[in-house]
Amino acid sequence: xxxxxxxxxxxxxxxxxxxxxEVVASFENYQDAQRAVEKLALAEFPVKQVSIVGSDLxxxxxxxxxxxxxxxxxxxxxxxxxxxxxxxxxxxxxSPTSTTPxxxxxxxxxGAGFGLFFNIVVYSISxxxxxYTSVMQVVASxxxxxxxxxxxxxxxxxxxxxxx
Length: 164
Fold this sequence. Notes:
- InterPro entries: GSP17M-like_dom.
- The chain crosses the membrane at residues 72-94, 100-122.
- Residues 22-99 form the General stress protein 17M-like domain.
- This is General stress protein 17M-like domain-containing protein.
- Helix 2 runs antiparallel to helix 3 (102-125).
- Strands 1-3-2 form a three-stranded antiparallel beta sheet.
- Helices cover 44% and strands 24% of the residues.
- The model has no long low-confidence stretch (mean pLDDT 86).
- The protein has two domains: 18-59 and 139-160; 68-130, no CATH class.
- It is elongated and about 65 Å long.
- The chain is built from four helices and three strands.
- The chain is α+β, with helices and mostly antiparallel strands.
């Protein structure tokens, strides 16, 4: 029976799989792992044989501010403005002879009005359950640079050399 970790790497498929190989370096943040791969690339290493794998994933929600009726109205108006602008441009492209130049502006304003109204209603309904705005991210606790087993020593040597 053959060792599956020694199998040659295949071209990336559409189904995500965890890459196999040897860990040649570990880092606490993604930027350091990227720098290691850049160093391998500068050393003419076949970077198609390299993967960065994040481990111990955590969901991090960064609170960005307090939600208010004003913020809800502004966010709704801006998103509605973009939707109205998009549909206005789309209608002008589909029927250029039957629309006027002010049509796009009117569609943008109508979209902003609907977005403002809709966001205020949603905020009013969910008010005391979530009175803040935030951004959600998934981050890893550590990142490993993995290469095919037959190239592991070459990668370690390239990473040990000082950058040129």
